[in-house]
Specification:
The protein has helices at residues 11-22, 64-72, 78-81, 104-115, 120-136, 143-157, 183-198, 212-225, 235-244, 263-272, 292-301, 322-331, 353-369; strands at 2-8, 27-35, 47-55, 94-97, 172-176, 202-206, 229-231, 250-254, 280-287, 309-313, 335-339, 348-350. The chain is an alpha/beta fold. It has three domains: 1-100, Alpha-Beta Plaits, CATH 3.30.70; 103-157; 172-353, Rossmann fold, CATH 3.40.50.300. Helix 12 (322-331) links the parallel strand 10 and strand 11 (335-339). The radius of gyration is 27 Å and the shape is elongated. It starts with a strand and ends with a helix. One of its GO terms (molecular function) is GTP binding.
Length: 370
Amino acid sequence: MKIKKFTADSMSEAMNLVKKELGPNAVILYTKNVKKKGMLSLFKNKKVIEVFAALDQGSDTAPQQVIKADLKEPKATPVMAEHNNQPIHQGPVKAVEWTSPLPEAIREIHAQLEAEGLHSDLVHPLTQTMLRTWYRSPHPLTDAELKEVLKAYIDKQLESIVFNGLRKETKILNLVGPTGVGKTTTAAKIASKVVLDEGKKVGFITTDTYRIAAIEQLKTYAKILSLPVEVVYSRSDFERALTTLEGYDLIIVDTAGRNYQQRQYIDEIQTLIPFNEQAMETYLVLSATAKSEDIQRISNQFDTLPIEGYVFTKLDETSSVSSLLNLVLNNKIGVSYVTNGQDVPDDIVEADKQAFVNQWIEGVWRERSS
């Protein structure tokens, strides 16, 4: 990343030079007012503008919006606010190559974020935010301070996205997702929590009639918990099962795990389950070990279903959750539960936004240090 310092008598002149020298991809890191240095201190009381700008030479992105934002809102910079009404003499502008290299800590974090596959529309503004904070600080930022910068940025991105477990008014919970992600085990874990912690009556419905082993697995869990299981093959079967379990507080629906890159299987679910039922929630269950592009593709296939939340499984099998962060921010869908092992009912917790962000940050630091 190329970083340069520009000195000018006005903000507009400085910005014009930034665009001329670094092009439209340039990003403003920091601006401040400084005393102008001159021969015999003739300019002792003269103020000029210093602008630090950067260009990521390895990036194909062109974040023109960032530089435009700085052009439109120079008052947002605290050091500028004090001098908004003071006329500044128009004079020549000079550019000075910033001699310090990109701070090593930020370079390492930037490289790790890219290595983890975090979307570039997150990596670049995160790096810019770290650089701005770094150059505004009177001292090099510590790891703890850099973590806080990342946390504050991601917290802001997640601000409108809800993380929580099962809603109290929910009567029917559908678990959908591809094969091998642990839907049946997740169904048993949620049922166990509701039965043991809340003392509620829970029943199962399974639509997974393609695999005998899947039905038997659910029946085994149901037997241990003394819960009923209804096996359905059609919409009429499903409606009959709902009638049979009408007196239960919660009905958990375990759907078949199929190759959901083929749209026909999504259509089968829609044919089978009446998604217009009141007090119904649908969670998409995904493995934390999957590649970012794969889980996004799977999620896209389910976009015709009313997905209210994600369940991320196998968090104990990965050190990075950047792919999950990509998914949540891209789709604006929150997380309901996360699982971190095979034990029923222990290895499942209701999703917590701060815990999720902290796990992401710690994963970045752990891999960065390895």
